[in-house]
Amino acid sequence: MATLSADQRTFAADQGYSGGTTWNANGYGYTIDVSGVTNPAPQTVYQEQRSGNMTYTFSGYLPGTNYLVRLHCDEVWWTAPGQRVFNVFINGTKVLTNFDIYATAGAQNRAVIKEIMTTANASGQLVVGFSNVVDNASISAIEILQNGLFDPANVVATAGNAQVSLNWSPAAGAAQLQCETCDRQRRALHDGRQQRFNQLLRQRGDQRHDVLLCGVGGERRK
Fold first, then answer.
1. Residue 10: band (very low, low, confident or very high) from pLDDT cuts 50, 70, 90
2. For residue 142, what pLDDT is reported?
3. How large is the average pLDDT for residues 50-56?
4. Residues 6 or more apart from 94 whose CB is under 8 A from it?
5. What does the alpha-carbon distance between residue 65 and residue 46 come to, in Å, rounded to a whole number?
6. Which of 6, 59, 84, 129 has the CB geometry, 3.0–4.6 Å to 55, for a possible disulfide?
């Protein structure tokens, strides 16, 4: 069954794997501390792991496109560093060497998220491999985001007159939304006004300097 996190990201059941074994901590009453990570998975995700030498193959991505792979981990068994150490590969390239969950987290039952920017291979795949060094490799969830961007929650598209309006819930703590296209249009409008204003000054004989307009939406530049 898929699990939905607080910011509306869907975590599906374990799939696309080869090798490894599963372990479920739900019956042990563990609570995983997620205070030290950004955009954590739900508690139920961290209470399950697949461990051992294993490979996950994710297909259907755009070849040559950048993706952010987020590895969700937590150590629920060992109580000291050096007891679980492993390597991680993405599309054959080693991205984590001698990774120790406990040493990274600094405690047991504390979530760790490792983020790796990578590129889908020519077949549109992201192949994530885990190799044991000491004891068994362990992973609770693998999250993949195109260009490292989180999709906004509850997106609703409304058709209008030759346009489509998009409305959604902002991410927690977001102060504003910045649209790159609108930003370019704003700068172009400001630059056009600037050029016209300086042209008028020159027509009036003021050749000493260009005056910089810095009103709402303007920017001061040398």
1. confident
2. 95
3. 97
4. 87, 88
5. 28
6. 129
> What residue ranges in 59-123 does DSSP mark as E strands?
66-74, 85-90, 93-99, 111-119
Percent of the chain with pLDDT over 90: 53
Which of 145, 133, 134 lies closest to 94, judged by CA?
133
Tell me the C-alpha to C-alpha distance, in Å, between residue 130 and each of 55, 58, 92, 186: 6, 14, 11, 48
For residue 17, list its beta bridge partners.
Answer: 56
Domains and their CATH numbers in the chain = 3-146 (2.60.120.430), 178-222 (no CATH)
Cα atoms in the Cβ-side hemisphere of radius 13 Å centred on 183: 5
* pLDDT at position 89: 98
CB 212 within 8 A of CB 197: no
Reported pTM: 0.67
